[in-house]
Amino acid sequence: xxxxxxxxxxxxxxxxxxxxxxxxxxxxxxxxxxxxxxxxxxxxxxxxxxxxxxxxxxxxxxxxxxxxxxxxxxxxxxxxxxxxxxxxxxxxxxxxxxxxxxxxxxxxxxxxxxxxxxxxxxxxxxxxxxxxxxxxxxxxxxxxxxxxxxxxxxxxxxxxxxxxxxxxxxxxxxxxxxxxxxxxxxxxxxxxxxx
Length: 195
Known about the structure:
By secondary structure, this protein is α/β, with parallel strands linked by helices. It has a single domain, classed as Rossmann fold (3-Layer(aba) Sandwich). Helices cover 41% and strands 22% of the residues. It is built from seven helices and seven strands. Strands 3-2-1-4-5-6-7 form a seven-stranded mixed beta sheet, with helices on one face. Strand 4 (78-81), helix 5 and strand 5 (100-104) form a beta-alpha-beta unit. The protein is globular. The relative contact order is 0.16. The model has no long low-confidence stretch (mean pLDDT 94).
């Protein structure tokens, strides 16, 4: 059984889609929900599904190596960042090479980097009069949104679309794509380990 940890900071709509996708899976399970916010709604979702949670502050996350042993204690094989806004420390990147992915609500390399998340991205897309936007799933490295791209999917931006309209389109892409891409990557991980 391959075990996934989801790192999330907010409501956790993508985390919920992952949990639902893997709920009855024979070989993959969501084994941990990790958050930097002790009152994040995603933690309520974890409780609802009886998934263990890990909550940490900035100092614990960036200045110590204490998060890694917690992940190891839960047997975590793979990490999905789904609305998690902090830069990942080097110790975790080294321990999970090509086993940690991030979901970004734009077509990288456009509209990525520090401070580009959520509605900020959609407002920037609208302000630039883009005719398309989309999502990117990429491996995590030591810089914001610069890891190798694994998957992208686009959607049109109409002249009448508000940032909220764009956000709604992006959520559809995210919810439809993240569980499938995660499953494929975790299956491939199993094949690599066995192979």
